[in-house]
Give the backbone structure.
Amino acid sequence: MATIIVLTNQKGGVGKTTTSTALAAGLVSFYHKKVLAIDLDPQGNMGFSLGLDIEDGRTIHDVMTGRTSAREAIQETDYCDVITSNILLSSAELDFNFSDRELLLKKSLAPVAADYDFIIIDTPPALNILTVNAYAMANYLIIPMAPEILSLLAVTQIKETIDSVRESLNPHLDVLGILLTKYNPRTVLAREVKEMAENIAAQIGTCVFDTQIRSSVSVAEAPAHGLSIFDYAPRAKPSEDYMSFIKEIRIMMRTKTLQEVR
């Protein structure tokens, strides 16, 4: 059964989609894992970043409304399999108005989950029914955040949703860590936000990743070419940082697995 990792933050512009695509591509390219990437953001940026036409083919909205199966919606890319999204998903709150709607994604993906080592889910910048669906099936959450006060505030607001999902839907939901993106260690603000993020991480039973993702124009350019950051700019600082980040994730997950066995 796949390990399910959800990238989440209700604040936009924090590098959530960039991190999702880098994680998916890195697990395939460097560790030869079989990965399914799911785009739950109506903007559809994840599929676009991996080189797909998000207006062509079936989407996660079609899967969750029962118009097609998860297997039929899967598209192949040079990096991983993807189920795309588009603007139709923005009507999710109205479309999914029945009982057990929080488990709709989990039930929809159940037939394909065993085919993959990892499922990476990119969520919208909101705490809505789509986000709750992702949390309900996740093994791990990763919270990307930029070193800004508003981004920090958004992380504090996630705690209530995490607690609610743990109580009612997914008691084993584990927050793997907070990832600082667009990071410049030379600025006072970045260092101060990092310290505050560590305090918040302690409150939700997690940590701030040792790796920070530094800024570079290559991060913004790569999606336009449908390439991962590793292929577009392999020597850029974010490429080095994301490689370190993925290594750190794998070490943390192995440690947690060993602790559970004991």
Notes: The longest strand covers residues 174-183. The radius of gyration is 17 Å.
